[in-house]
Amino acid sequence: MPAEYMDACRESGHPVPAPHSISRLVSSYMEPKNPSKAVRESFRIVELLLLSNHLDHAHSLATALYRHVDTILPKNASRFSQQALNYFWFTHPAYPLPPNAPSKTRQGDRSEAALKTESRWKTEQWNNYRECTRTGWMLEHCNLREPEDPHVWRETDNPPMIAMCARLLAKDKTPGHYPPTEQLREALAAAEKLYAQPQVPVADWKFEHKESQTVRRHSYLLYRRLVVELAIRVGRLDTAAEVLSQGLVLDGFNTSDGAALDRFLVLPGIYEVLPRLAAKGRAGNPFYIEDSDAAAMVREISQTLERRAEHGRQWSLAPERVGWRELLDRLASAAWAVNSKEYKKNGVMSAAEILNSPIKEEDIKAAEEVVGELPEDLKEMYRIAGGFKGGWHFLEGGLSDCRDFEFDPDCEELDDLRDEKELSFPNDDDDDNNLQGFIELSPGVEQCDSYRHYLITPALYRKLARERDDYKEGEYMYWNKAYWTCGTFWYGSVREWVAKHVERLERMVEDGEVEDGQDEDDCSTVLT
């Protein structure tokens, strides 16, 4: 099995090819509670297989995904819109639809539902085409108006003007209609003149905003997606493959240039072009997957889907596998590796100093006399370390010890807890309306960006979750937030939150990544 495949850079969103680990994909199926990220990445691999013209392998992987996705994803997990895959099934009736696949009609089927689907595809494809021919966009971004003579492109080498003429020649204002073939041919000729000019790969492009004098990339001025479609419509399939290849090599999947992968895969006639692109191999498509690698990848991912469906989550940081001592040591080690610069600035001079001193048993009991029963896993942590230090944003500021607990009966998340977590709160006129089990914990450092930490004690959670069928004795809830964050981050326990950070930080160490503001040289020194 190949160790990796090529796709756009995962973290930065950069469109150029970057290696993606198969073992990491497998891990992202087995480790988390919700493997939505792995499912999403696997559907992406289906699209890459289609782009590589491995239709059998793409269909096999898609079938395996739809067979197991409802089993392995939580009921409330968002499902994935697979426009490119639906179009593949629409245009390839020889491939059987998986039972749970959303597309239920075929091209050539004359039923009412099929005709609606066909009409929808034609409408969406025309709208995508129209987006690429907007001449008002050129006025807005390049301060360039439509020329009186759209044929002026023959007499100029000015990229914006050539692009404007190509857009204008390809344009038709009547919904669902395209210009005459001769006009499409001229639009394609203008595009070929534009693309024949020297072009800078997106990875090397240095953008400088100079108002009306701003220089734009050629594919930004004229989407290659449009030019591929023009070549298909005038019957120049080899040209379509060449333009697509040039775009993949120079632009990658640059969404700002209209080059999202799924947009390419729903172009009308694209499946006549893909065999020609595949013949170029990796030289013509840096995201190309070899046939033998494709077979091995599909087999490995399909087997992983089955393991997750049959045996559930296989979490390597589960409490029965990794105790608090090891978990906290790994947290401190990885945190120091990726964020030592900020720690040193705040007076923390080693990984060991990130962890606070253990809390005495009498202090834990004293805290419980004030706030009530504390969660067992939190008490276990305090016996080993009285919390840990974070940073301004790092680790949400960290966590202090139980001597800093405060009641927060007016917690702002009450409505969210009612709605999202299905907890049964007492009525306002209920004599039992005592919500003092909401506790605010202090962050581990004074200087953090307004982070706040909360938990519901097990006793109160037992009361609030009494109507839930899945309630288990000892359960509670922890969450953290800051006023500026986009939402609240919920966890089933403090340990779950800490373990999530250990996973994230150790992955950063593995990839040689550091936190913002940390010098790579500092990190490399720490790691050695």
UniProtKB/TrEMBL annotation:
Name all Knr4/Smi1-like domain ranges. 358-500
Query: What SMART domains would the database entry show?
Result: SMI1_KNR4
Protein's recorded name = Knr4/Smi1-like domain-containing protein
Specify the species.
Answer: Emericellopsis cladophorae
Native organism taxonomy: Eukaryota, Fungi, Dikarya, Ascomycota, Pezizomycotina
